[in-house]
Design brief:
This protein has helices at 9-43, 63-72, 90-99, 110-122, 153-164, and strands at residues 51-52, 57-58, 80-84, 102-107, 129-133, 146-149, 171-175, 186-190, 193-199, 206-214, 217-229, 232-239, 242-245, 247-252, 255-261, 267-275, 278-284, 289-297. The chain is an alpha+beta fold and 307 residues long. It has two domains: 51-199, Rossmann fold (3-Layer(aba) Sandwich); 206-297, Lipocalin (Beta Barrel), CATH 2.40.128. Helix 2 (63-72) packs across helix 3.
């Protein structure tokens, strides 16, 4: 017989070494296939509508509404957009691809972050659209020009104090859900869903010295804004021995508008830009428009946010 049992010891040892070498070679050849098989789940990850997240279930925003949300936020090429709870990344990617903006998506699910990052690369906007695995309640988004959200009302309310402290004029756009007593500045509907816009209001509360022209003279009047509830200030202007309330007063981002009837019986409308403790703008009497200014004395009370 010439089978393995009849081989001498050196021959059997050589045969074992040859078999070991063949097994090792076969394993090396199979490694690429095994690696590809192991990588497949991450590369092929697809989120499912209704899947559970950290604080909400994930439901994709309709494409039509994504476009409208970014239009509502006035997104342009010089803007920095942050999406809170970025999910599949479609809002950040659309901001970069359709509007030329820079975008940053904050998402808690690492699989979603990887998925959104791949989508941005496939869309050719990975240089302007990036995604981060993070908790939105522990993140700093104070440098955003526009913030987009699709969160539950309870989460919007939890974020509201932080959002109110952002720089005046920051644009906030939400899908479907509101901000409690903070009324939206504009509402849109597209793709069968609602979108809401808020402009973070400047704080104009406090004591002001208002300077404006009337009858060829430059008047200087004391103006007091007793309280400001979100974007709605309430106040009075002293007119000699009388005083009068501000009419139609509203803060729109870093701008403020109000009106009152002067001592000449003429209604004047003021539209100015707020820069800390100073307001500069135009006042119109219905016939001509001239410059006005106001200077705040000290600090005013905080904006009221009680629902």
């Amino acid at each position: 017989m010439t089978g393995p049992a009849l081989l001498n010891k050196p021959a059997r040892s050589a045969r074992r070494q040859a078999l070991s070498s063949l097994a090792a070679a076969a394993l090396l050849l199979s490694l690429p296939a095994l690696a590809q098989k192991g990588a497949a789940p991450a590369a092929s990850y697809e989120p499912q509508s209704g899947q559970a997240g950290k604080d909400v279930i994930w439901v994709p925003t309709p494409d039509e509404l994504v476009t409208r949300m970014l239009q509502l936020g006035g997104v342009g090429k010089n803007d920095y957009v942050i999406d809170l709870g970025a999910g599949d990344g479609k809002i950040v990617i659309a901001a970069a691809k359709q509007f030329g903006a820079r975008g940053h998506g904050i998402e808690y699910n690492p699989d979603m972050v990887a998925h959104a990052t791949r989508r941005a690369k496939e869309a050719g906007v990975s240089d302007r659209a990036r995604f981060e695995k993070a908790d939105i309640f522990e993140s700093d988004f104070s440098n955003a020009d526009v913030i987009t959200m699709y969160l539950l009302p309870t989460l919007n309310l939890k974020l509201r104090p932080t959002l109110m402290k952002l720089k005046p004029g920051t644009r906030l756009v939400t899908h479907a859900f509101n901000m409690g007593g903070w009324q939206p500045d504009e509402t849109s509907r597209a793709g069968g869903a609602n979108a809401y816009l808020w402009l973070v209001p400047a704080n104009v509360s406090g004591q002001w010295q208002l300077s404006y022209p009337q009858g060829g003279k430059q008047l200087s009047q004391a103006m007091t804004v007793e309280r400001q509830r979100y974007q709605f200030p309430e106040g009075t202007v002293v007119l000699g021995s009388a005083d009068t309330s501000l009419r139609d007063a509203r803060v729109i981002g870093d701008r403020v508008r109000f009106a009152f009837t002067g001592t000449d019986g003429v209604l004047r409308t003021f539209d100015g830009k707020v820069n800390g403790g100073r307001i500069d703008g135009q006042v119109s009497d219905g016939h001509k428009s001239e410059k006005f200014s106001a200077t705040r004395k000290g600090e005013g009370p905080a904006i009221e946010t009680v629902d």
